Amino acid sequence: MRPLCSAAVRRGDGDARVTDVDVVVVGAGLSGLTAARDLDAAGLSVLVTEARDRVGGRTLNATVAGVNVDLGGTFIGPGQDRVGALAAELGCATHPTRTAGDNLAFWNGRVRRYSGTIPRVSPVTLADVERVRLQLERIMRRVPLGRPWDAPDAAELDAQTVASWLEKARATAGARSLVGVITKTAWGCEPNEISLLHFTHYLHACGGLNPMVDTEGGAQQDHFPEGAQQLSVRLADKLGEKVLLGAPTTRIEWSEDGATVTAGDTIINCRNVIVSVPPALRGRITFAPLLPMLHDVLPQRWPQGVISNVYVAYETPFWRAAGLSGQVVSDAAPIYGTFDTGPSDDGPGVLLGFVGGSYARDFATLPPAERKLRALSAFATFFGAAALNPIDYIEQQWGQEPWSGGGPTSAVPPGAWTSYGRALAAPVGPIHWAGSETADKWPGYLDGAVSAGERAAREIRTRVQGVSA
Ligand SMILES: Cc1cc2nc3c(=O)[nH]c(=O)nc-3n(C[C@H](O)[C@H](O)[C@H](O)COP(=O)(O)OP(=O)(O)OC[C@H]3O[C@@H](n4cnc5c(N)ncnc54)[C@H](O)[C@@H]3O)c2cc1C
After folding, report:
1. Is 105 labeled as ligand-binding?
2. Do the first three CATH levels of 17-57+228-291+428-465 and 123-213 match, i.e. the same topology?
3. pLDDT score of 469
4. Where in the chain are the domains?
5. Cis peptide upstream of residue 408 (ω within 30 degrees of 0)
6. Which of 173, 390, 411, 432 is 20 to 30 A from 125 in CA distance terms?
7. Residue 315, annotated ligand binder?
């Protein structure tokens, strides 16, 4: 089919600008921009409407003491082929995350050194964590990728939280705390907030617990020295005027033949729409007519977690001289996990810390000076008094970002997948769904954002150009 017309925005009679394109993509995060890139390359006219005045969504570059850092999505690892291929194509280099030296665990009020991923807090806890991991991975193999509701015991898995399952499995307090650190940092929630079906589906989509939590050989293996937002910035640069910033989509009127999208003061007539915002934020868009019931209610049942991250910079990475990697796992608020993302032994030294779950909700309400004090105190508990003298400090509260609604990803509660999951990625007439959370592999990650964008673009090409999906 011929493209409807060029994507160039033109002025209408009144204040509103009216334009026609083949496809409107709502959201200029990595997923939406990947979809737009593919459709543009396939000869379809596209317009990306973005609420913020920047691209990249949950990726955001910043500097601390002059060093590039990521305030959002940061790491990539083996098996994340789609984002790896995109990074290579766009010339976005990656760098191994620093692992040299011992890790630290702050556990039951004591700091201990260890090597590897799982902190050796006690032999009993270690053995129990392994037992729990094996049980969870046995369950995950029953949960089909992209169709968790088809698991033979889906209803049972979706009727319990991770916390209630741990209790039933008689997990030790140590194993429960460790799973708690994982839910706080991976989903921004507590174990009693997400369903076991969601947890095990996610594990399956990542290839298991170790690929998800490991640094070497796992999802934290590499990062982008120029920042992960560069992926979106470079995609947007190629799309040029086809990306409209500061234009929140508020209304989508649709029929089987097409849609009219209202984005800021621009009204766009199009043949198809891809909505790439986090599932919870779909509910802020008025769809006329109303979406089918499952699609309409889903945003209420797909909440984002809450996470904040902090970066502290020092003259030098003094912990390296003490034989430490800069990685910490902690069972106590405010900082549950840290990484060393500094450039070299000469300095500046840079530590990233994650504040997730229920404490992140409290943390966000504290005055900025108090937040900084608490974060520095935690770093000092881990690395000693030298951590109280930073040369720079920055932080990001994802729970207070209106166009993210939290982060890092959706913390899906019991009952949601089995009741509404079928509507997560299923198109409705001309409306298709992208966004990392709709991916079958690595959902909630940069890789999932890319593969979901690619899948949504394929769906549209099948519909419009008859290309096989
Ligand atoms: C603190 C943190 C750490 C993370 N760490 C990692 C990591 O190490 N590795 C990893 O792989 N992933 C990580 N992630 C997750 C990763 O960043 C996301 O999965 C990914 O960036 C999501 O991309 P997306 O395009 O699907 O969604 P988003 O990035 O959320 O993009 C959606 C876009 O839609 C826009 N939007 C929303 N509503 C509207 C509207 N009504 N109209 C128009 N535009 C709208 C938003 O402004 C945004 O630009 C992390 C995330 C956070 C927050």
Report:
1. no
2. no
3. 67
4. 17-57+228-291+428-465, 61-99+220-226+305-400, 123-213
5. yes
6. 411
7. no
Pocket of ligand 1 contains residue 266 by CB under 6 Å: no
Among 4-18, 117-131, 357-371, whose mean pLDDT is lowest? 4-18
- Mean pLDDT, residues 446-453 taken together: 98
Nearest-CA residue for ligand 1 atom 6 is 73
Topology of domain 123-213, CATH? Guanine Nucleotide Dissociation Inhibitor; domain 1 (1.10.405)
Query: Does pLDDT of 429 surpass 60?
Result: yes
- What's the half-sphere exposure (Cβ side, CA atoms, 13 Å) at 420? 23
Ligand 1 centroid–CA 219 distance in Å is: 17
Ligand 1 binding pocket includes 121 (Cβ within 6 Å): no
ipTM of the complex: 1.00
CATH number of 61-99+220-226+305-400: 3.90.660.10
Residue to mutate (ligand 1; options 24, 25, 58, 338; most atoms within 8 A of CB):
58
Cβ neighbours for 89, distance < 8 A, ≥ 6 positions apart: none
The pLDDT assigned to 334 comes to: 96
Looking up tokens 């011929």, which residue turns up? 2
pLDDT band at residue 413 under the 50/70/90 scheme: very high
Q: Which amino acid is at 406?
A: G
Which tokens sit at 286?
């008025």
Residue 389, classed as helix, strand or coil, is: coil
User: In angstroms, rounded to a whole number, what is the distance separating the alpha carbons of residues 219 and 67?
Assistant: 22
Q: 17-57+228-291+428-465 in CATH: which number?
A: 3.50.50.60
Q: How much distance in Å is there from the Cα of 408 to the middle of ligand 1?
A: 8
